[in-house]
Amino acid sequence: MAGWRIGRSNIGFFGFFETIENYQVARVWLDKAKSWIESRGMATMRGPGEYSNATHERQGILIDGFQYPPTMELTHNPPFYGELLERYGLRKSKDYHAHIVDLQTTVPPRIKRVAEKARLRRDIKTRSLNLKKLSNEVDLIVKVYNEPWAKKNWGFLPLMDEEVMVLADFLRLVVNPGLIRFAFVKGKPAAVFGAFPDLYQALRPRWRWYGDSDIVRLARLIWKRGHIPLLRLMLFGVCPGFRKLGIDAILLAEVKEYAIKRGYEKCETPLLLEDNGLILSHSEFMGGTIKPGVSMTCR
């Protein structure tokens, strides 16, 4: 359990909430976080989450949809967490929803039309990730991802180079450059779209007579890395000056066509705020639908 200040606001954030099903135990940790927050003059306590209140990390708690297995970097917890936090006095701030996109259907004609018109009208170029220049690519991801989300996005904290580099190192074993694409308008970076195979598909415990140690699971990941059917969309953003040009349609069409050829079946989106109409419409435009019964809440 930890607490820290969000920017220059008077909000204190707590994270890494893990507890057994015992209110007295949970209260001890929550009291510690509350005391730390109050001692620094902050009036609001928000959480739980991870290192920050950033939507590219696990945030809030799962309150419905426990029948589904965890997906990489999406919130998952025991069902009793909500009851413990509400008993302490915490209340919903906002809901997040999980969307899922079917990748085995062809690219919708509407998206193809928008993408074709955009290419004809604008000098839009796209390319995939270059693993040989990963450090430079990380810098570009940070620049293009942070700009679209920096304003008017509740609770957003920008990605830092170090965060993306750690993520890149972590996912290097399974990263598929064809699933990460950049768009440029007249040579200027305009958008990024990045999906990764879901590591949990291979790392999820499968108890056998030989056990299921970390070494066994790592070997399974290396063996299955080219055959993981589920993707996680983790990076998506169109810079403000390049919105409504059809760039999102171009990137979606390219990545989906690539995913179909490679046999990927479904893709889960990042956490989507219930009142962020723009990003929800983007997800629906891509064919995304709310995953039945799943909602995360940030308290």
Task: Write up this protein.
The chain folds into two domains: 2-96, no CATH class; 104-264, Gcn5-related N-acetyltransferase (GNAT) (Aminopeptidase), CATH 3.40.630. 35% of the residues lie in helices and 23% in strands. It contains nine helices and twelve strands. The strands form two sheets. Strands 4, 5, 6, 7, 8, 9, 10, 11 and 12 form a nine-stranded mixed β-sheet that branches. It has a three-stranded mixed β-sheet with strand order 1-2-3, with helices on one face. Strand 9 (230-238), helix 8 (247-262) and strand 10 (266-268) form a beta-alpha-beta unit. Helix 1 (23-39) crosses helix 2 (81-88) and helix 3 packs across helix 8.
Order of helices and strands: EEHEEHEHEHHEEHHEHEEHE
Assigned CATH class of the largest domain: Alpha Beta
Total number of helices:
9
Reported by name, the CATH topology of the largest domain is Aminopeptidase
Per DSSP E runs of 2 or more residues, the count of β-strands stands at: 12
The percent range for helix content is 25-40%
Stretches with pLDDT under 50, minimum 5 residues: none
The CATH superfamily of the largest domain appears as: Gcn5-related N-acetyltransferase (GNAT)
Q: What fraction strand?
A: 15-25%
Distance between the termini: 15 Å
* CATH architectural group of the largest domain: 3-Layer(aba) Sandwich
Shape: globular
- Tell me the radius of gyration: 20 Å
Q: Largest sheet at a glance?
A: 9 strands, mixed
Structural class: alpha+beta
Give the number of domains. 2
Draw up the topology in text.
Elements: E1 2-5, E2 11-15, H1 23-39, E3 44-46, E4 61-64, H2 81-88, E5 94-102, H3 109-121, E6 124-128, H4 134-149, H5 161-171, E7 180-185, E8 188-197, H6 200-203, H7 214-224, E9 230-238, H8 247-262, E10 266-268, E11 272-273, H9 277-285, E12 289-298
Parallel strand pairs: 2-3, 9-10
Antiparallel strand pairs: 1-2, 4-12, 5-10, 5-11, 5-12, 6-7, 7-8, 8-9
